[in-house]
Design a protein that fits this description.
Layout (H helix, E strand, L loop, with lengths): L1 H20 L5 E7 L9 H17 L5 E5 L2 E8 L3 H14 L6 E7 L2 E2 L19 H7 L4 H16 L3 H14 L20 H11 L15 H22 L7 H17 L4 H8 L4 H5 L6 H9 L3 H7 L3 H14 L5 H15 L3 H22 L6 H10 L5 H27 L1
Antiparallel strand pairs: 1-3, 1-4, 2-3, 4-5
Helix pairs in contact: 2-6, 6-7, 6-18, 7-8, 8-9, 9-10, 9-18, 14-15, 14-18, 15-16, 15-18
């Protein structure tokens, strides 16, 4: 009930904000994602909203202020363009972009909101049956889980068309999780004073296109040569990240893992992906023997034999394929997809030796984190309290979050082919 009250209160506040903005412009534009349920903020709505917001900035020169709540992602912008002309442009995007059907882009002018039917367009239709959408919503004609499933599948189908979009989806899934135990979320900077959700979005926007270059790496070379080219590409992507974020490390581990998984898939397809990753990652052993920089992973290997993210890679990301993807798929039908990702993140925290945690909190902090994550994993009422404790202890499980992104990537885009391969063995 409280969530409903909060949504209604925020809508009233937004209406007052729109009226104030109209005093200084011709049009106010609002954007929301069409998604059922009281909790509308999750990886899918986050991705859809920011995909369309990015498009509108490029094509219509609209700059949105964005807020996040149970209502999902809500963007608001203002323009000096004629309201009717602008509405025609935005209806075209809603009607032609593969994700356009999942957003409502409203234009409010001096005489109020401009309706589609006032401009000669038909009313929007239901995703599932083709009837008028508002009739299906009011009558609750369709099971909510079926509507969500349809939205999710359409998003996956759109994102799987390129490495860039698969990486964007995985990165935004990681970022959308809330609460996330000291990490940056749409609501909070966690323990990080130098970054927030916008820092991460800037980084994602900058680095994602570079992953398309994987497909141009020559597959007809040795594993060591192929891996070396991936590493060189990774160095360039890191440079792009640091430039975009003013030298803030938002995605270094994420870049490494995405390159490794997508590179392995490019090199040998879905055929025994785990083993391909393991073979490609063999040169990483030399990082420990001849370190060129003192990363937390190198430091903890030298002092305690903890292998960190390189160790996961050299083991073919076995924990992802043997434990985390099955766990994710088992709970994927839970109604709130954000809860699915929280539980998968917590499961990951119990299984890996996260060197970002070790760096700040040592072995004692890592042991505490694993124990508490196990205890609260299936207790949603305890998640916020645990997140608060992590922030108090200055813990932020960045390595676990990057592994979560790999789980989302593989389960969303490669699982069917991986499953077929496993059944064939």
């Amino acid at each position: 009930m409280k969530a409903n009250i909060d949504i209604l209160t925020r809508r009233e506040q937004r209406q007052q904000d729109i009226l104030k903005r109209l005093r200084g412009c011709l049009s106010v534009i609002t954007l929301k994602v069409n998604y059922p349920g009281n909790q509308k903020l999750n990886a899918f709505t986050f991705y859809v909203a920011h995909t369309i917001i990015d498009l509108l900035q490029k094509q219509v020169n609209l700059t949105f202020e964005v807020e996040y709540s149970n209502e999902g992602v809500v963007g608001i912008a203002q323009s000096f363009e004629d309201s009717i002309k602008l509405k025609h442009e935005l209806i075209a995007i809603e009607s032609t972009h593969p994700l356009g059907r999942f957003v409502d882009i409203d234009v409010i002018g001096g005489d109020g909101a401009i309706k589609r039917i006032d401009l000669g367009y038909r009313e929007r239709l239901c995703f599932l049956c083709g009837e008028k959408a508002h009739v299906c919503v009011r009558s609750q004609k369709h099971d909510m889980s079926r509507v969500k499933q349809f939205v999710h599948q359409c998003v996956i189908d759109y994102a799987k068309t390129s490495n860039q979009e698969m990486v964007r989806f995985a990165a935004m899934a990681e970022l959308s999780v809330h609460p996330s135990f000291g990490l940056v979320t749409p609501h909070s900077s966690g323990i990080h004073q130098d970054m927030d959700v916008n820092t991460f979005l800037t980084s994602i926007h900058a680095i994602a296109p570079w992953f398309n270059h994987i497909r141009s790496v020559d597959k007809n070379q040795s594993e060591a040569e192929f891996f070396n080219q991936l590493r060189q590409l990774g160095i360039e992507i890191e440079r792009v990240m640091f430039k975009a974020t003013n030298n803030i490390n938002t995605h270094k581990g994420f870049i490494f893992l995405m390159l490794l998984v997508l590179g392995a898939y490019h090199y040998r397809g879905s055929h025994d992906l785990e083993n391909t990753i393991k073979q490609l990652a063999k040169p990483l052993i030399f990082d420990y023997d001849h370190p060129t920089d003192e990363t937390p992973g190198i430091t903890w290997k030298q002092s305690h034999g903890i292998l960190g993210i390189r160790g996961l890679a050299m083991n073919g990301l076995n924990v992802v394929f043997s434990e985390l993807i099955p766990f994710y798929l088992e709970i994927k039908t839970i109604d709130d997809y954000n809860d699915v990702l929280i539980m998968t993140l917590l499961k990951t925290m119990t299984l890996i030796d996260d060197t970002t945690v070790l760096k700040r909190s040592g072995l004692e902090g890592l042991a505490w984190l694993k124990q508490e994550a196990q205890a609260v994993m299936k207790e949603p009422l305890l998640w916020q309290s645990f997140s608060n404790q992590c922030e108090k202890k200055r813990i932020s499980p960045g390595g676990s979050a990057d592994v979560l992104a790999v789980v989302v990537l593989c389960a969303s885009f490669f699982y069917d082919s991986i499953k077929e391969e496993q059944h064939g063995n």
